[in-house]
Amino acid sequence: MNNTLLPTVLLSLCCLFCIVFLVFGLRSVLARTSWDKGRQARVLRTASLLLSGWILLLGWLALRGFFADFSALPPRQGIAMLIPLPVVLWIAFSKGGKELLQHTPPQWILYLQSFRIIVELMLWVSVLDRLLPVQVSLEGRNFDILSGLFAIPVGYYCFVKKSWPSWVVLLYNTAGLLLLLNAVAIAVLSMPTPLRQFHNEPAVTLIVHFPFIYLPGFLVPVAYTLHIFSLRQWAMSRSTARYTGRSIPPPIKG
User: Fold this and answer.
1) Distance separating alpha carbons of residues 145 and 117, to the nearest angstrom
2) How many angstroms separate the CA atoms of 123 and 206, rounded?
């Protein structure tokens, strides 16, 4: 494909940023727990292996053309997008996951959502280069850049300065999930499948190729994972406040 250099660079930087943040963030959170060094090392090793294995599998399948079959329903990109969800939910509601979230500075989870600014810039550049249709970008029907733009202010003023009420976190995460769902739905309805509703060209086929498969297969799961974890933290905080009869401070600041 032509003109893919800049979108490829932006996507690669975005993925690298997320991977580094996730791995080093997890290592820092593990060090805050009461777990022994052996357990910390096992958790970090398992998480790193799962993450690297998933990334390698996505790349291998994309290079073999697995995701390029648009006759398959549901679209294979959608399956790749949802496979991590059960694991994420299990972590969020497991005993170990709860302890990790208790030791995770809540602003970290929100700060990482700023990667969506880079994603939206990548999509916009791809539209300018006629690699994607306009509706998937901020010039069309995709407003997911708002999730990235508000991530740092919400994290900072809710958890560092503590000058914004806690319901802002709930509002941000709810709106962020809806914006993400909207972006995904537009992309799916712009693919050359029987589900297609947007018939302007080009169709959304870029994301089935390497390395763009990492947008639906990795970055979208990262986005909804962060929302789920943040909402879980919010619910845990509310539950604790209800039982103790007072508000509690957020987890340790980073």
Assistant:
1) 5
2) 10
**Distance in angstroms (rounded) separating the CA atoms of residues 152 and 109:** 10
CA dist 197 and 179 (Å) reads 19
Cis previous bond, 211, omega within 30: yes
**pTM score, whole prediction:** 0.93
Enumerate the domain spans of the chain: 5-244
Q: Give backbone dihedrals phi and psi of 73, rounded to 5 degrees, phi first.
A: -125, 130
Dump pLDDT digits (tens) for 67-94.
999 888 788 888 999 999 999 999 999 9
The beta-carbon contacts of 81-86 under 8 Å, at least 24 apart in sequence, are 81/184, 81/216, 81/217, 81/220, 81/221, 84/54, 84/221, 84/225, 85/221, 85/224
> Is residue 115 within 8 Å of 222, Cβ to Cβ?
yes
Interatomic CA distance for residues 63 and 67, integer angstroms: 9
The string of DSSP codes covering 99-165 is HHHHTS-HHHHHHHTTHHHHHHHHHHHHHHTTSS-GGGSTTTT--THHHHHHHHHHHIIIIIS--S-
CA distances from residue 177 to 112, 181, 182 in whole angstroms, order as listed: 15, 6, 9
DSSP state at residue 247: -
